[in-house]
């Protein structure tokens, strides 16, 4: 396909070169996990999409810190390869594989049911799984990109909330994208009632919904000891853009040598998951340099977040009865438990083994189809 005449102007080449140089300079800055002393012995973490790319890098780092690390992967074969690689690299035998397809609400419920039955605690939940796919409606009546990137994580979080709260201080990290700024949080996208203009629009919009979800979740979890933050990995060299428009793919092909590696792109997620600096911070958006940044105006729209939440509950089959007592709304925020522990660092030696039994039993009913 021939490029438009404007794109053949020498100025475009110079601008692309300058952009690449800026990206290369920025990727050399940022938080260094080697300077973080957090040890996760006795802690349990879940990383979705952990079989490759950013997710595998995040899981590797958490396993290296001695966490019981659950790799939640759609492909058992690729997940098994990642499992063996991470175990070999870290010597951590407490790395386990569980099948999860966040694009299937039935799979999400099955996964959550198994976690609630088998795990006594959950300290970190990382929503990393993400795709950019052509428009397709799943057998459950959901658009697949939005199901995988947004509705699946929404449902999974709600089903595991009791376990997270019983393990507090706990953290939820949602991997978003700087591209959320060009997205539209139209709930009609979720079920395909309205069709996004291309895979790139769908991806950007799903990431905007992820930021809205993370912020609204933090508001609803006030006083529970569980934090929720969204992060941008930056411009990372992965294959996620293979279904984007040819113009976007052409631009990224030009600047690919200057993009971040998956390991570099994982830093902001790891920072929010384990760093002492991020302890107690909630409802925020961190850029790829692990710096607090204001997300788009749409991502800060409280009314939009609440409307999206309500529609997401309806589409995923959740209802107020699935929320634990005290899981408040804006008008009725959740009261702070008398014995609540501060939202401190994961380095704290506080354990809640055995405290999850009652909540887990109640939640098992919610995850059954």
From TrEMBL:
The record's CDD domains line, in alphabetical order, gives: retinol-DH_like_SDR_c_like
What residue range is the signal peptide? 1-30
Query: Which molecular function GO terms apply here?
Result: oxidoreductase activity
Keyword list (alphabetical) reads:
Oxidoreductase, Signal
InterPro entries under this entry?
NAD(P)-bd_dom_sf, SDR_fam
Record's keyword annotation contains rRNA-binding: no
Region spans: Disordered: 315-354
**Keyword Oxidoreductase among UniProt keywords:** yes
Q: Where is the composition biased (Polar residues)?
A: 338-349
Q: Which family does it belong to?
A: Belongs to the short-chain dehydrogenases/reductases (SDR) family.
Q: What is this protein called?
A: Uncharacterized protein
Native source organism of the sequence: Melopsittacus undulatus (Budgerigar)
Per the record, the gene is LOC115945919
């Amino acid at each position: 396909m021939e490029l438009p005449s404007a794109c053949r102007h020498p100025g475009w080449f110079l601008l692309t070169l300058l952009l690449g140089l800026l990206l290369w300079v920025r990727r050399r800055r940022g938080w260094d996990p080697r300077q973080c002393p957090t040890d996760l012995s006795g802690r349990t973490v879940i990383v979705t999409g952990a079989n490759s790319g950013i997710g595998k890098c995040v899981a590797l780092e958490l396993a290296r810190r001695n966490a019981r690390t659950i790799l939640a992967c759609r492909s058992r074969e690729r997940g098994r390869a990642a499992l063996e690689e991470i175990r070999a690299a870290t010597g951590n035998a407490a790395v386990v594989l569980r099948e999860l397809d966040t694009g299937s609400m039935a799979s999400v419920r099955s996964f959550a049911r198994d976690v609630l039955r088998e795990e006594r605690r959950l300290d970190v939940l990382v929503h990393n799984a993400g795709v950019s796919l052509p428009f397709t409606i799943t057998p459950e009546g959901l658009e697949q990109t939005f199901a995988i990137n947004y509705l699946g994580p929404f449902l999974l979080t709600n089903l595991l909330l009791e376990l997270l709260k019983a393990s507090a201080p706990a953290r939820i990290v949602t991997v978003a994208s700087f591209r959320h700024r060009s997205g539209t949080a139209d709930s009609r996208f979720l079920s395909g009632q309205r069709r996004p203009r291309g895979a790139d629009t769908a991806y950007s919009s799903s990431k905007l919904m992820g930021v809205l979800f993370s912020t609204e979740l933090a508001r609803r979890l006030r006083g529970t000891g569980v934090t929720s933050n969204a992060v941008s990995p930056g411009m990372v060299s992965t294959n996620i853009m293979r279904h984007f428009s040819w113009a976007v793919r052409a631009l990224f092909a030009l600047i690919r040598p200057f993009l971040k590696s998956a390991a570099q792109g994982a830093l902001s997620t790891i920072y929010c998951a384990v760093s002492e600096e991020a302890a107690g911070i909630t409802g925020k958006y961190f850029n790829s340099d692990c710096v607090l940044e204001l997300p788009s105006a749409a991502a800060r729209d409280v009314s939009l977040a609440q409307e999206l939440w309500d529609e997401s509950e309806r589409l995923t089959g959740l209802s107020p009865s699935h929320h634990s007592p005290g899981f408040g709304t804006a008008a009725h925020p959740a009261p702070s438990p008398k014995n609540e522990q501060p939202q401190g660092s994961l380095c704290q030696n506080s354990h809640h083994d055995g405290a999850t039994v009652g909540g887990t039993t109640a939640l098992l009913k919610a995850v059954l189809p």
